[in-house]
């Protein structure tokens, strides 16, 4: 508990304290500032959208990895983890050279919002997959067979038997993926161009606040992000309980 | 006839799991598929349930050709060795699952679930989760779940295999009584001959993918078709070219009967009321003999005693196979 406090709680408290130190007016002025608000909106909505994609695609990829046998499977296993292992700035560079100006595949989304979405998607891909995969591996085939012999179609078996078992893992993966999205900096900073009101995300906004020696403003934005992350985690937990109980 | 299986073949890679199996399982009875592990009995059961596909051959259930029916359409109840509970559902929800799939009215489901839970003595656990039940209770729940859909046949795959000895014994007595009440055609797989003999009306002995013999427990015990069936159903020893049960050997301290074989007691173990002897005969056979304690005492038996052995009158004997077990 002490370890946990020292590592997590104290720094978090420090951020909140710094934000409050600046006074309520500064706090409010900062977050209602058009540019900041736009950055927060962009970050949160994009992270949410990316998480939604991951919630659908993650279990699918995990399913294929666990249940199907195909050539090159072990290669795919390794590839999934690359976004984890790659320094994000390298990921950013890769994305820039692939989707930036002069793209070899003819897709130029540099300095546009899809760039942010794509960067988020790239770095958050492994979370849901890696959370769901071990649970899926542990899942008893017996249970699916039992459902089948009781007359359940494959879809019903998936919805009523498999999905509830996966829900905690999917939720945890979604929370991680959302949190990662909100905090992402390196992978998008090159491709997105950081245009205010358009492609500037909160982490960039915080950095520029610090660079302008406005620590209070940076802490204010950070506190808002903290609150949003907390809310998302709580909401996901509630959803998970609801789904698990529905059975 | 409830289940008819004919010409069934099944291979897993190079391994032959079933080799031209033909079996007919009678309606309303409790039938055991008995055999050693890896003998193909579970595969047969799973093919009947539609959980596994045979390479060739056909299955019909209650006169309905079922070979190509998916498991969902066969209306069989299946009970797994490791219970296969739906972990996130309460006991009542588990039992209700099949009925909900069939979209029965809510009050009917509720009524039926209560009835079944009473039948398996789990009424007071209806709202618990399976993880809060013991192994035996989980398996009873799984049985109620399988019975809920009123299956035409009930299939149990080593249903008591994961339970400890005491619970196992209780449950099999209970299964026998349950079957006497419910009368659904039941097939269960076991490798435990005692379990099969005690519970089943009829036993199908399966070994290395083939049916060795079909019959009532008494028939199998008294008239085994071959050495394998005989040795699988109880202890077997060999005396002068025949296989027979150790307790079917007459032991005398002097050569009184014609054709008796002389030997020396090399080992003597007393277990409760019986005495187990190992006798080395002059022919070089090592024969196991079981006698009562009174018999042993009256002959003054001890290690090193010279004795004469004869197959008892009316003993079950089969010619000894070259590759005796």
UniProtKB/TrEMBL annotation, chain B:
The lineage of its organism: Bacteria, Bacillati, Actinomycetota, Actinomycetes, Propionibacteriales. This is Sulfate ABC transporter ATP-binding protein. It comes from Nocardioides pini. GO terms for molecular function: ATP binding. Keywords: ATP-binding, Nucleotide-binding, Sulfate transport, Translocase, Transport. Residues 3-233 form the ABC transporter domain. PANTHER family: SPERMIDINE/PUTRESCINE IMPORT ATP-BINDING PROTEIN POTA (PTHR42781), SPERMIDINE_PUTRESCINE IMPORT ATP-BINDING PROTEIN POTA (PTHR42781:SF4).
């Amino acid at each position: 508990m002490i370890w946990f406090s020292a590592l997590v709680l104290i720094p978090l408290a420090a951020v909140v304290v710094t934000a409050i130190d600046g006074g309520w007016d500064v706090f409010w002025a900062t977050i209602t500032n058009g540019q900041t608000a736009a950055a927060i909106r962009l970050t949160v909505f994009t992270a949410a959208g990316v998480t939604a994609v991951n919630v659908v695609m993650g279990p699918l990829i995990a399913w294929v990895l666990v249940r199907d046998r195909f050539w090159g499977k072990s290669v795919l296993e390794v590839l999934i983890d690359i976004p984890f292992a790659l320094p994000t700035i390298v990921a950013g560079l890769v994305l820039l050279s692939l989707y930036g100006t002069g793209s070899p595949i003819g897709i130029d989304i540099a300095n546009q919002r899809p760039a942010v979405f794509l960067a988020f998607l790239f770095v958050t891909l492994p979370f849901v997959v890696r959370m769901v995969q071990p649970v899926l591996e542990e899942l008893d085939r017996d249970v699916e067979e039992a459902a089948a012999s009781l007359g359940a179609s494959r879809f019903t078996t998936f919805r009523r038997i498999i999905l509830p078992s996966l829900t905690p893992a999917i939720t945890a993966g979604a929370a991680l993926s959302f949190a990662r999205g909100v905090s992402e900096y390196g992978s998008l900073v090159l491709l997105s161009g950081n245009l205010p009101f358009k492609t500037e995300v909160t982490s960039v906004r915080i950095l520029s606040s610090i660079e302008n020696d406005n620590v209070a403003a940076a802490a204010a934005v950070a506190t808002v992000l903290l609150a949003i992350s907390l809310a998302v985690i709580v909401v996901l937990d509630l959803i998970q309980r609801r789904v698990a109980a529905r059975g | 006839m409830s289940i008819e299986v004919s010409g069934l073949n099944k291979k897993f890679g190079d391994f032959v799991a079933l080799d031209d199996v033909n079996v007919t399982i009678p309606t309303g009875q409790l039938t055991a598929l008995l055999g050693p592990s890896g003998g193909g009995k579970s595969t047969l059961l799973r093919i009947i349930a539609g959980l596994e596909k045979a390479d060739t051959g056909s299955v019909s259930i209650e006169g309905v050709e079922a070979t190509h029916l998916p498991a969902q359409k066969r209306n069989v109840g299946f009970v797994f060795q490791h219970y296969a509970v739906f972990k996130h559902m309460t006991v009542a929800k588990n039992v209700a699952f099949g009925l909900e799939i069939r979209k029965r009215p809510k009050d009917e489901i509720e009524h039926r679930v209560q009835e079944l839970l009473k039948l398996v003595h789990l009424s007071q656990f209806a709202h618990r989760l399976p993880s809060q039940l013991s192994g035996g209770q989980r398996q009873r729940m799984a049985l109620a779940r399988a019975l809920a859909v009123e299956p035409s046949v009930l299939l149990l795959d080593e249903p008591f295999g994961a339970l400890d000895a005491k619970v196992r014994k209780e449950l099999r007595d209970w299964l026998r009584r349950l079957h006497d009440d419910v009368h659904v055609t039941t097939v269960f797989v076991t490798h435990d001959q005692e379990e099969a003999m005690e519970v089943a009306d009829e036993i199908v002995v399966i070994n290395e993918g083939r049916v060795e013999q079909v019959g009532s427990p008494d028939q199998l015990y008294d008239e085994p078709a071959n050495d394998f069936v005989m040795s699988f159903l109880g202890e077997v020893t060999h005396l002068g070219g025949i296989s027979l049960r150790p307790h079917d050997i007459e032991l005398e301290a002097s050569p009184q009967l014609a054709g008796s074989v002389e030997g020396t007691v090399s080992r003597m173990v007393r277990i409760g009321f019986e005495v187990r002897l190992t006798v080395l005969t002059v022919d070089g056979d090592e024969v196991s003999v079981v006698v009562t304690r009174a018999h042993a005492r009256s002959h003054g038996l001890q290690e090193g005693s010279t004795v004469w052995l004869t197959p008892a009158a009316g003993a079950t004997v089969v010619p000894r196979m070259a590759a005796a077990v």
